[in-house]
Design a protein that fits this description.
Elements: E1 5-10, H1 16-32, E2 38-42, H2 50-58, E3 64-69, H3 80-92, E4 97-100, H4 110-124, E5 132-137, H5 143-160, E6 164-168, H6 176-185, E7 191-196, H7 202-213, E8 218-219, H8 227-252
Parallel strand pairs: 1-2, 1-3, 3-4, 5-6, 5-7, 7-8
């Protein structure tokens, strides 16, 4: 049996730059593992949608599909639209088996990418001194993801020995303007924003604009299809694909007798 196909699920946008990042991610991941079929689908705004991609996969000999959300804020629970879409394609294509992997999420290794992007922004703005940082992210609805984002902010703070406040674009916490105001209330004046976003979508642009209006000295660009991010995605795929193998073996396990259905009752 062929390895499960991989479908990257990304937020769409009216900006072509967002789709470009998702497609670049697919191309680079396909180059890393040419034996596995890699696809991109969008949850909104632009094609192809998840059902469109699955309809194409269903016409091949593929029997299993792993979905991976490219959300960099969600840790365990993907966007509700992911589960809704998977329920839809499962009903439309009963021959196929589907698994939803953990989202890419806010892995600690991504802080190094945020640093690289922020250093570039600081160099471009000729900024040499900072006394406060904001870690801007899309944000997540579930408490575990929010807690992990807060932990990443603490790790980033310890690394740079500077105060760090997390800003969430989805309204679950302060935005960049409020985060900068909080740092200013602590006496901080040279504040930069690191962006834990995959692509320059509307949410990132809004947070970047707010930060600059609030006086941020620099805002880093989104991460893009960097190698570290691709390796995290492949790790998510491997875990989900292995889980499908385990389930398949359980289903194929023959009955070995009736003892497993009996219970012993003491006399």
């Amino acid at each position: 049996m062929a390895a499960p196909a991989l479908v990257l699920l990304a937020h769409g946008s009216t900006s072509p730059l967002v789709a470009e990042v998702a497609h670049e991610m697919r191309v680079r991941m396909q180059e890393m593992k040419p034996e596995i079929s890699v696809h991109t689908a969008f949850l909104d705004h632009c094609p192809p949608s998840g059902p469109q991609v699955i309809s194409r996969i269903a016409r091949t000999r593929t029997e299993e599909v792993v979905f991976i959300s490219t959300n960099l804020s969600a840790t365990f629970v993907p966007d509700e639209r992911v589960e809704t879409m998977v329920d839809k394609v499962r009903a439309s294509h009963p021959r196929l088996r589907f698994s939803i992997a953990r989202p890419v999420g806010p892995e600690a290794s991504l802080l190094g990418l945020v640093d690289r992007k922020l250093r570039a922004a600081l160099a471009s703005a000729h900024i040499a001194e900072l006394d406060g940082l904001v870690l801007a992210a899309e944000g997540a609805a579930d408490q575990r993801s929010q807690s992990l984002l807060a932990r990443r902010a603490r790790q980033w703070s310890m690394h740079h020995k500077l105060p760090v406040i997390t800003a969430n674009a989805n309204g679950t916490g302060p935005g960049t303007a409020a985060a900068i105001a909080s740092l200013r209330a602590q006496g901080r004046r040279h504040i930069a924003v690191g962006s834990l976003f995959l692509a320059p979508d509307e949410a990132w642009q809004t947070q970047a604009d707010q930060a600059l209006r609030a006086g941020a000295v620099a805002v880093s660009e989104p991460l893009g299809a960097q190698q570290e991010l691709l390796e995290i995605a492949w790790g998510r795929y491997a875990v989900a694909a292995m889980g499908m193998v385990d389930v398949g073996l359980e289903r194929e396990q023959p009955e070995t007798g009736t003892d497993r259905h009996l219970s012993v009752v003491a006399g």
